């Protein structure tokens, strides 16, 4: 099929706030510096739901969503370096071109080589490889893993150890790498630190896994759904709190209660929800003088964070992370090795497995808070 259009199955988002529709789409061959990938597994991340629900200012429809997947190279165009048919690969929504100012700067992983076209739902040449019933479909985050076949830029793909199970490796395409990297790269959490995490979904649990690996001495998990607490403890939380169960004195905020009850606040806090109010809680629960708060959650169009400047003047730092700060092409293969060497966990994040035809159920259980990660097979 190299060089030819492939007809295959995909879950198409025809419009915002509508269920995905299983369709036969046409996937055109890869052009120069592109790779066509056969997706074997894809997980559903909250960010997919964020865009599907119409909260994403860059959201474009109709689109093939999905950005946490794995598969094998089906075909490449000549002049693509580094990939051969059959390679086990993970698509990367944060690419790594190794030439742009961002790739050359050790302070960031945010390669900007193709960010404009990616944000416009296209491959780097400004066009799409997807059609359905004669209609063009947009790409998503440069990945579009909700399709049996996808086409990605060669800088948005990495080769991984073929002995690693692709079903598990798909989770390193987003959630686990992000939470784990937020701790190790973005915040560089030191041994003996105290950490608090808002949101005990896959991302928040990966933060907890990272905090344990960094040697944190106290890790507090915070969520409204108490059934999340057992998995938080499995990954290393020393305590879990449901804010709704705390009796607050008149006029006392939850974060002020945390400051009063946890030695003045935490060395590091992480927001893994995407809610500007919990982002404020996390910032103001960071310790005076040195506390760092890291935003991982994605807040919708128009949402803004707020706090008194005094919070920063008195020594707190507010920062954020994209894909856990990992320079993606260099790092994801190493994270796969860490998994193979049992340095990091993946299996325990997979709570549901579905066939792609049941993808809307995967979104339902995510919204209900019943799942961590659902992995879909084609
Ligand atoms: P998820 O839906 O599985 O988890 C969110 C958790 O937050 C749930 O357990 C929910 O019960 C809890 N929650 C909701 N409101 C709360 C509140 N007011 N107080 C306490 N807990 C609350 O989502 P996920 O897949 O783990 O993703 C988490 C967030 O991270 C999302 O916003 C997603 O878009 C974002 N994300 C960002 C990056 C990045 O690179 N920055 C990467 C992956 C995901
Ligand atoms: N289009 C969205 C972007 C939201 C966002 O912050 N995305 C994260 C990844 S979330 C993965 O689950 C990110 O990496 N952003 C870096 C970038 O360049 O977008 C919006 O809200 O505008
Ligand atoms: Zn994601
Ligand atoms: Zn770059």
UniProtKB/TrEMBL annotation:
Keyword annotations for this protein, in alphabetical order, are: Metal-binding, NAD, Oxidoreductase, Zinc
Give a GO cellular-component term: cytosol
Under InterPro entries, the record lists: ADH-like_C (IPR013149), ADH-like_N (IPR013154), ADH_3 (IPR014183), GroES-like_sf (IPR011032), NAD(P)-bd_dom_sf (IPR036291)
Q: Please verify whether the record's keywords include Membrane.
A: no
What's the protein here called? S-(hydroxymethyl)glutathione dehydrogenase
Query: Residue limits of the Alcohol dehydrogenase-like N-terminal domain?
Result: 32-159
Gene Ontology biological process terms, A to Z: formaldehyde catabolic process
The residue ranges of the Alcohol dehydrogenase-like C-terminal domain are 202-331
* GO molecular function per UniProt: S-(hydroxymethyl)glutathione dehydrogenase [NAD(P)+] activity; zinc ion binding
So which cofactors does this thing need?
Answer: Zn(2+)
């Amino acid at each position: 099929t190299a060089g030819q259009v492939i007809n295959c199955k995909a879950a198409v988002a025809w419009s915002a706030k509508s269920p995905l529709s299983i369709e036969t789409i046409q996937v055109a061959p890869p052009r120069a510096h592109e790779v066509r990938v056969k997706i074997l597994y894809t997980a559903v991340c909250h960010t997919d739901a964020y865009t599907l629900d119409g909260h994403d200012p860059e959201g474009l429809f109709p689109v093939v969503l999905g950005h946490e997947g794995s598969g094998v190279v089906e075909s490449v165009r000549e002049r693509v370096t580094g990939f051969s048919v059959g390679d086990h690969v993970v698509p990367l929504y944060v690419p790594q071109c190794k030439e742009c100012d961002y790739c050359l700067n050790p302070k960031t992983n945010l390669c900007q080589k193709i960010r404009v076209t990616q944000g416009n739902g296209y491959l780097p040449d400004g066009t799409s490889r997807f059609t359905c019933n004669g209609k063009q479909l947009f790409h998503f985050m440069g990945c579009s893993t909700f399709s049996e076949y996808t086409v990605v830029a060669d800088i948005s793909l990495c080769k991984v150890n073929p002995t690693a199970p692709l079903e598990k490796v798909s989770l390193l395409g987003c959630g686990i790498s992000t939470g784990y990297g937020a701790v190790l790269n973005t915040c560089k959490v030191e041994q003996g630190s105290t950490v608090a995490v808002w949101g005990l979904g896959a991302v928040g649990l990966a933060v907890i896994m990272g905090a344990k690996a960094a040697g944190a001495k106290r890790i507090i998990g915070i969520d409204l759904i108490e059934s999340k607490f057992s998995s938080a403890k499995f990954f290393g939380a020393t305590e879990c709190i449901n804010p709704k169960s705390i009796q607050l004195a008149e006029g006392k905020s939850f974060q002020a209660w945390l400051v009063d009850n946890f030695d003045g606040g935490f060395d590091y806090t992480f927001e893994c929800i995407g809610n500007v109010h919990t982002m404020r809680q996390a910032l103001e629960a960071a310790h005076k003088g040195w506390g760092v708060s890291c935003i991982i959650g994605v807040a919708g169009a128009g949402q803004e964070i707020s706090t008194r400047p005094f919070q920063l003047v008195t020594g707190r730092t507010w920062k954020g992370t994209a894909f856990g700060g990992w320079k993606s092409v260099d790092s994801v293969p190493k994270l796969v090795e860490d998994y193979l060497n049992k340095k990091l966990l993946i299996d325990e994040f997979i709570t549901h497995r579905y066939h792609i035809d049941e993808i809307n159920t995967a979104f339902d259980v995510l919204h209900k808070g019943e799942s961590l990660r659902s992995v879909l097979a084609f």
